[in-house]
Design a protein that fits this description.
Blueprint lengths: L12 H15 L6 H11 L4 H13 L8 H8 L7 H11 L4 H5 L2 H14 L5 H12 L3 H10 L5 H15 L1
């Protein structure tokens, strides 16, 4: 059974599964084969969810030098008002691997994307909350304000996650 079983998606399920597996490999620091790199390279050229997943693979792997367009692909994806849940989750997972200085270059789009995620709540928000914490630690006042609001959220899990970050000395 693939990673996308039971999920609704707008793209090619076999290649989407392949990219999600490559992202998992990258997160475990497992080297990519030449075929893996070729798959990512060809998928990055697509202007759809598959391209975004390929960009996420690159960010998680830290191979932005080899695939410099990856950060731009993911940055453009933040403008998508309703990405499929597996793409939205992959974006957050990938952004956790991006240096804070790079995030600053598209913080407005990122905060808008986060706001949409918080409104829709179709994914687990742990990575969203953690990303807000990273941004707040780097001096992004708007991220800190969102995190403080989440510490008052009606969802216990979200409230506790935000509170833990705030209590860890972000504010």
């Amino acid at each position: 059974m693939g990673l996308l079983s039971g999920m609704s998606f707008r793209s090619d399920p076999p290649i989407a599964n392949r990219l999600l597996h490559l992202k998992a490999k990258a997160a475990k620091a497992v080297p990519w084969t030449a075929q893996d790199r070729a798959t990512v390279r060809s998928c990055l050229e697509k202007d759809d969810d598959i391209g975004v997943l390929a960009g996420c693979c690159v960010l998680v792997s830290g191979r932005t030098g080899e695939f410099p367009s990856a950060i731009e692909v993911v940055r453009r994806a933040l403008q998508n008002k309703h990405p499929p849940p597996y793409v939205e989750l992959s974006i957050y997972e990938a952004l956790l691997y991006v240096e804070a200085e790079q995030l600053k270059s598209f913080v407005d789009g990122l905060l808008s994307f986060i706001g949409q995620s918080l409104s829709r709540r179709v994914i687990n928000l742990d990575n969203t909350t953690f990303l807000l914490g990273r941004m707040a630690r780097c001096g992004e006042a708007r991220a800190l304000a969102v995190l403080r609001a989440l510490a008052q959220d009606t969802d216990t899990e979200v409230r506790e996650s935000a509170s833990r970050l705030l209590n860890a000395g972000i504010a």
